[in-house]
Each structure stands twice: as C-alpha cells, then as structure tokens.
Please model this.
Amino acid sequence: MNRLFHSPLSPFCRKVRLTLAEKRIEVELIEERYWEPTPDFLRRNPAGKVPVLRLEGRVLSESQAICEYLEEKFPDPALMPRNPEGRYEARRLCAWFDDKFHNEVTSKLLYERVNKKVMKQGYPDSKNVKMGAQKIKYHLDYMTWLLEQRRWLAGDAMTLADFTAAAHLSSLDYISDVDWNRSAAVKDWYAKIKSRPAFRTLLADQVPGFPQPSHYADLDF
Amino acid sequence: MNRLFHSPLSPFCRKVRLTLAEKRIEVELIEERYWEPTPDFLRRNPAGKVPVLRLEGRVLSESQAICEYLEEKFPDPALMPRNPEGRYEARRLCAWFDDKFHNEVTSKLLYERVNKKVMKQGYPDSKNVKMGAQKIKYHLDYMTWLLEQRRWLAGDAMTLADFTAAAHLSSLDYISDVDWNRSAAVKDWYAKIKSRPAFRTLLADQVPGFPQPSHYADLDF
Model:
C-alpha cells in the first residue's frame, strides 16, 4: 500500500496530496507529528520533514522532487506544460510560492497561529502576524496580474504552479486568513481549483483545536 | 549578449554560473546590489532576488527553474540523470542544499559574517554563527555517507546536485568556514569539482573587505 506521511495543514503536503489525487494514485494518509520525530521517521527522511511518500517500495521526500517524479512516472493527466518555456514558468512559480510566499506569508500567519500552538511553542508573535497579513496582499495582487493575462497561473493550462499556490492559500483559508474579496480574478481561480475532485481530500481536513470555518469547504465560498 | 545579474558569493548565483560554464554558454556577469533594488531590477524580477538571467531575449529567475531550463535547452553535457529515479534523487538533493543546508548553515554563517556587513545591517549574531558551525558538521557527515555509496552525490555521474552542494560550500570556503579535514570523501569530491574548467569563474571572485584566503583557489587546497 502506498502511504503519505503528512501533516494536514502543511502546504508542502497538500501540494503532493493534490498531485496524487489528480493523477488518481491511491495512498493511505498517515499523520506525522514531525516536530517530535521518532527514529523510524528520521530513517524514512533524514531531513526530518513531511511530506514523505512511500510509493511502490520507494521512499520519497521533498515536495517539488516528489511532484516532478510523479509527473514523469504518471504523465496523465499532465501537470507540467509540454515545452521547456512553459515548464520553466511553472517551476518558477512553484518556487515563488514554496520559497517567497512561504517565507513572507505562510510562515508568518499559519506557523504563528497554528503550528506554534500545536507544537506547544508559545503564542503568536503579533509583529510576524501583522507582517504576513500585509504581505499576502502583495502576493494576491501579483496573482491578479498574472491571471489577467492567463487562464491559469503559469499559462493557459492548469499546472503544478496552480496546485502549489492553492496548497498555500487553502491552508491559510482554513484559518480564515485570505481576503477573497481583494481580487475577483483570484477568487474565480480558487473556485475552479476548489471544485476539482482532487481537492476533496483537503476540504475534509479537521485540525483539533482549530474548527473548520464554514466557508472553507463551501464550493461557492 | 546574454547577461547574468548576480552577487559573487550567492550560492544560488554560483549554481547557475557553474551550470552555464559547464554547458559553455557565454554570459556577461553583472553584479547586482539586490538589497538596494532599483526599479529596473524589480522590473526584471519582481521577487527582487538574484540570480536573474537574460538569455536569448528571455528574462529568467529562480535558480532551480533556470538550471532545469538550461538542462532542457542545452542537454549536452548532461547535468541530470536519464531515468526518473535518478532525476528524483538529483532534485531531492538540490532541495536539500538550497533549503535545509541554506537555512541551517549558509544563512547562519555566510549571511551573518558577510551579507550583514556588506548590506550595513550590523554585526554577526554569535548565536547564529555558533549554530551554523555546529550544523555544517552534520551536513558534511551526511555527504560523507552518500559519497561512501556513490561516486557523486546523487549517483555515479556528476549532476546538478553536486553543483548545488559545491555552490554553497564554495561560498563558505571563501570565508574559511569549511573544515575539509572532517571528511576525506568530501574533500576528494570537492577537489574533483574544483578542478573543472566550469569552476574557474568562481575561483576568480574577489569581494571587497573580504580578501580571498590562499587555499580558496588552490586546486590542491
């Protein structure tokens, strides 16, 4: 049985979950308290992070490397463009969200509000939360700018870049930290992604101590 | 003319410089003080980071996306394995160094000691420096473990993973922060990389205020 060791609100795990679901690869989800690593877990991934995917006997880590591998082994339906320029743009945007958006927004909002509580590391740092709330506006505006020129973030087809962005935004949406009224273009884009069958697994998540807000799983917001 | 906007000791720029040189793509190097971004620079890359590559009329950013693009457009000599499993392992290790090693070591040593001074952001935080000096040992040991099983980091051929690791280590070597005596396997590996023609551009770097140590460009250490 294929297994994904994950944490429900981790955007890196969500990106892999979306990719697996889109490609109809069945996995058993196993929640991992990676901040209290067991020797077993560290043996699976010396980096001590989630996601870790056990697939057909192989143990895989690092979300982008996993998704690229899944794309190469299970090319249908495609999540990467066919030409090098298109793939470049998809990869650039994956890095944009996993690096820049992650540092400026996800780590400032989600990690302060949720991870610190779950990991018993104290209270949110209000300076960080304020900074994250400020920066997300800039990122939503950047997405709007892209979506005014393209149907999807990296071009005219949906790609891994859309899943990467949706993975981060959906985790933040779980704690009601996305202002969907800021941009009609981004709201429409998210509604399209959210209604895909692949998204169902994310909408079913429940995190103890953080009840799911009513709009989170509502396909019409 | 192709141009790379870069900063000499940035490991992300070095990774792209190594890849360009290995594939014999000529570029003009332009130093960018990215921490004082000009409107021109931000127009080239809204992320406000280096490297930015202007190649055949296209403007490219994000080092991993750039290197994957170069690999696809200029496949010879190859820097990625031919099979998906090999490419997965190369990508996993690129992420290991660009993410984990970067956060635990590069940012704690290089950014504290050099970037802070160059950017006039104060003095090194000795707690960070101490932590980085501690963590690099663990990473050198992990590399040793890999190199005991393989000729290169990701397998039996040199890949982008080796360039990524060498990019980080060479920047730290410029400030004498790598203990090459810790591991004969890592030292041999670095000597092999360092003697490649592609490495010459890095060995010629000079950073004002940080004189190049004598061992840095010495191919026999």
Chain A has a mean pLDDT of 95. The interface with chain B takes residues 46-47, 49, 58, 60-62, 64-66, 68-69, 72-73, 84-85, 87-88, 91-92, 94-96, 99-100, 142 of chain A (CB under 8 Å). The first strand of chain A starts at residue 3 and ends at 6.
